[in-house]
Structure formats: structure tokens, C-alpha cells
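Record type: ASSEMBLY
Status: queued
Input:
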Amino acid sequence: MTTVTPANGSPVRVALLRDGAIVADDWLPPAEQSPNDGEARILTLTQWQGAACPGDAAVQLEAGDDLEPLLAALAGLPLVAVHFASFTDGRGFSLARRLREAGFIGELRARGQLLPDQAQYLQRCGFNALEFTDPERLAQAQERLSVFSNGYQGAADQPLPLFRRRA
Amino acid sequence: MYRYDDYDQRLVDERVDQFRDQTARYLRGDLLEAEFLPLRLQNGLYVQRLAPMLRIAVPYGLLEARQLRKLAYITRHYDKGYAHISTRQNVQINWPRVEDVPDILEDLASVQMHAIQTSGNCIRNTTTDPLAGVAADELEDPRPWCELIRQWSTLHPEFAFLPRKFKIAVCGSAEDRAAIHSHDIGLEIVPGPAGENGFRVLAGGGLGRTPVIGSEIRPFLERRHLLSYLEAILRVYNQHGRRDNKYKARIKILVKAMGVEAFTAAVESEWERLRDGPTTLPEEEIERIAGFFRGPAYAALDPAAEAAVLEAHCASEPIFANWVQRNSHDHQEPGYRAVTVSLKATGNPPGDVSDAQLDCLADLCEAYSFGQLRTTHQQNIVLADVRESDLLALWRGLQAVGLACPNAGYLTDIICCPGGDFCSLANAKSIPVAEAIQARFEDLDYLYDLGPLELNISGCMNACGHHHIGHIGILGVDKKGEEFFQVSLGGSQSKEASLGQILGPSFRREDMPDVIETLLRVYLDHRLEDESFLEALRRIGMQPFKDRVYDNGNAR
Ligand code: SF4
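Status: finished
Output:
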């Protein structure tokens, strides 16, 4: 993975909640132009498909996107981001579960308009990275990753439903 | 009845803490109104016309005495001393303060209750037959399945932000008392080819602005696959249901747009990926949950002796005899009957029950019905397991608090939403219409002569009062700022479900009792022997009703 060093020399641009820890983001968000050489930038699905579907790129899905074009390449992708245009649009939760069920093991990132209160549901659906631009909300999200000590359902974080785990 | 273990208890306790945190952040301005909205809705908290409204979950309508006493306490302590039974078998209180709600939820959690997912765009309380487990026409008790669905749907991480609310109902008997055809998913327990019961699965039913009868998407589903199949349906809906227009966001619109076949194919292909996974129900889990619902410790009665006592009581108290005839139902267990406690006495807003009545019901169900009772989607209460020889004592106890109204299943047993007196979405007040009709038809002989009749009233298109499936439906509409009422005829929630047809132009509130009386006169003039209102209507059609009502000049 390429480390980004922006013009001001600081490698830290945006913080990110990844695997429960607040870390510096090493990816640039999707942009209209395709990335420059050596730039670690997340591609839009159209850019990714236009670039002949490179197996080692990071790609962002929108809520309504179809997973099919991605499925064959999943094994090699380092990062798939799902963009939430609104925190009430729950399609991204199902996309995440489908991706994990299809065997994706890379970074699965939720970005866009999210609430800290959704952090645990996002994690349970398979997201291991959550983006919050506001540092206070990022910290709140981190505190809310384990509001519930157990869930009834099997999900990405714990495939076994509670009825297979009850002591 | 299902009992929480440590896992269940911890989950509702953690939910209380979570909501306390969310409320505090909202009150100090950290959470915006629009952000708090879906969070509070998923804890049953609405902000209504006059005050907030809190909807408390009563899973599939089952309550025990200590829970009733806690509800009575909550209405006294935080509210105005009464509660309302909703058409989803839940309990609503109309006057709590937002800042008190975390404390109310904590009180509820102390008796294994909560308000999780009683509102919002998520999976709501699963409803069923109020006579589940005791009805003589039952194939299998649906409540264990409702509990399995409750656990699966509670805080489901994938389905908390659906396009719209989502309602599931389960029926396990010959007669459908759960209105499964008007739910997003309707499940009917049916015998399978190999002798084991399974489910007939309906999807895409619903009331509201566009009422639709559910379509069968699977004639038979093996029971162990229930949860993975529900998960597949929800996933298809979550991904493809419309989100651009809230009036087109229910699953019924998706099923119509895709067509039943294509929708079914999408569900089946999603299910192929999920079936036989960890969500498949092990036999032991089905048995474990079913164990909570095995009948109470019925006494080994001499049915003839019970019947003789009841007969003697009836002979000495004709009013009691009438109540037994109207408000009690056959039971699977010899010597027992199930009893409907009508919350529809004239002058009582349909479904309202006071704190004193709740306390009294707690005492009565402890004394005569193994300490439990059920709420019904008709907004009544059922005491399901009463010895025939105890019926008189129960009736006396009910009479003392005004709960012995002998009208279960008759015209004045009106289903009615809170309407414009409470609800901010209302076009019209529904409760005064119900009261005026009840007052007009107080004569019991006339009521019984009319036979079984379902009259349902909603204050707006959202149809919380299920007006589409009433034999007579009344809908409040707004015409240039004035309240009017539209009447429909011929709806039914039975297995031969149908949606009512609009009679014609709407009426003023003060004319409603006359309109209903005219409609009933048409029925009485035309009916053949033993023919119910619905049967007569299906035979003679709408025209005679239209002719008579509009000739009278009631229309506007
Ligand atoms: S039907 Fe309309 S008026 Fe009645 S409770 Fe529902 S939303 Fe309110």
C-alpha cells in the first residue's frame, strides 16, 4: 500500500476508525479525475471498470450498485468502500454482508453520512473501517462499537446466532 | 410464556443505557433533530400533536400480571392514568415527557419489557392470534414461531434502516385471526408432505394508502428454514424497495413492480446463498422455545361438573349468561373457556384502559387465568384459560371496573385508531365517530340481531384502524380543511380476505350514525335466514346500499 504524503509533508490527513482503533487514513477519497500514478486513491466503480478492473485497486460502491462486476476480483482487492448518501439509507448494510459472504477479506469501509450510533451495526455487517470527518463523532463511534455485548443474529462479526451459543 | 435469560436481560438493559445516552445527547444539542428521529422511533417514541407518545412492545400480545402492574404504575407515574391498546397488540401512552422516557424504559426492562422497534423503518412487533395455544381450531401454537422471529428481528444489524416499516404476522389455525393477508409477510402454519408442519409464505400485503392482499410466494417452507428465508426476503426488500417516495416504499409496491414471479425468484436466489447456513433452526432450539409455551398446569376437571356449575350460574344471572354467550370462546382443554374482555364500552375510547383497570386485570388473571392475558389487534383483552366454574366470579370482578361489556365481535366492538384527538397525521377525529355510533346502537337485542359485524375506523390513509378490512370501514378525509368521512363496505380479514369498496361521496361527522343505521337497514331488509352482513353484501352487491344511503340525501 502506498503511503500518501501530501504537499504539507504531514502523512496524516483524516483519521479513521479501523479494527476498533483510530488511525491515520492512508487512502485518498474518490475524485472525479482518475488518480495520478502512485497515488493511493479510492476509485469510483466507473473508474475501476474503465481501468480494466485492476485487481489491486480500491473501489467505492454506491448504495444501489450491483456487486456482480466486483465478485470475480474480490480476492485481490485491498479495500472496498461503501458510500452512504444518507444515514437512513440501509442498503449499504446488505451490500457489506453480501461482500463478506462472497469471501471478501480486505478492508471494508463505510463512508458518507453516518451516525456514531450506527457503528456497531456497521461492524456487525462486516465493515471493519468507519470514516467520520468530525473527530468528536469519530471518538463517539469508537465508544459505541460494543454497546451490546451480544446480538441474537448471526452476522459478519459472529456468524453463529445466539441460539447456537447460549450457555 | 417466554422468560428472559441473562442474554435477553442484558440486551434490554444495554438498550436502556443506549437510549439514555442518545436522549442526553439530543437534549444537549449533540444529536440533531433529524438524527435523533430514527433513533427515538426505534424505541417507540413519537412526537405527537399534544405530547410525545410512547409505544411499548407487547410481543405477540402476551402479558403477565406483574407486567400489567408495571404498566399501571407507568401510566400513573409518568402519564395520565391510562393506556391504549393498539391494533398491533402493543400498548401506547400518550403523555410522557421525552426526558422521562429512559426511566420508563428502565422500569419496563425490570419486568422483561421494552419498546424496541415499535416504530421506525424496521421490523415491527410480530402479531398473532389472541387465542393462540387454546383455540379449538388450531393446528399448531404460533407463539413459539413469533418468539423466534422476535429474537431474530430484534436489533438485527442489517435491517434497522429499511425503506419503510415492516410487519409480520403468523397464523396457526383454521380461521385467520391474525389478518396475515394484510401484512408485509404473512405466515400460515400448514401441514407438510412429510407430516411435519411448515409455513405457507405470503408477501406484499398491506393496508395504508394502497391496500393490497398478500401474494403467496411459497406454498410450503420447511420450518427449520424459517429465519434464513425471512432474511432473504428482507434482504431483497432492503436493497430494492423504493426509497424516493415514502408512499411507495412498502414491500407491496416492490412486489407489484417486480411482479410476484420475479420477486419470488429474487428471494429464492438470495435464499440459495443463505439456506442451510448457521441461521438454520436446530430442532433443539425449536423445542426449547416451544417449551415456554406449553399450556399452563390445567386442572384435571370433570367437564360435566364444570358445565353444570356454569349452567346453574347462567340460569341465576341472565346478564352473565349473555356475556358468556357473546364474549367467551371454546377451548382445547375440557372445562375451560377463553374470555374476551371488551374495551369498547360506550363512552370509552376504543382500546383505552385505565391504571385501576390494569391493576384489576392483573388480579383477575392471577386468580382465574394462570396470571397471564393477551392484548388483541381488535384492541381488546383476552383471558385465555378460565375454568367454566370461575366465569361468574371473573365476570363480577370485571363488572366492578366496567369491563364486562358483552359486545365482542358485534357492531359496537369498533376498531378505532387514536385519530385527530392525539395523532399529528390525522385528517379527522375518529374517536368521536366511534362514540356516536356506539351511543346510537346501545340496544343489545338489536346488536345481536345484526350478528357478527366488524366496523373499523381510521383517521387518515395510514389505516392504523384497519378500515380497509372492516365489513364496514370508515376513513377520515380532509376536504378544504373540513373533516369528512368516507365509508367502504365488504372488507374482511379472514382467510377469504378482501378489501372494502368505497360506497361513494363522503359524509359529515354528525351524519355518520344515520348513515350506518341506513346501511344496516338495507342489510336487515335483504338478508336471508342466518346470513351475515358480509354474506348478504357479497350476494346483493353495493348498489342497494348506495341507492338507499344517497337517496336519503346524506351525501355531500
Ligand atoms: S390512521 Fe392516521 S390518524 Fe389514525 S393513528 Fe394512524 S396515522 Fe394517526
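Annotation: The interface with chain A takes residues 5, 7, 10-11, 14-15, 17-18, 22, 31, 35, 38-39, 121, 151-152, 154-163, 227, 235, 238-239, 243, 273, 277-279, 281-282, 285 of chain B (CB under 8 Å).
Annotation: The CA atoms of residues 314 and 320 of chain B lie 6 Å apart.
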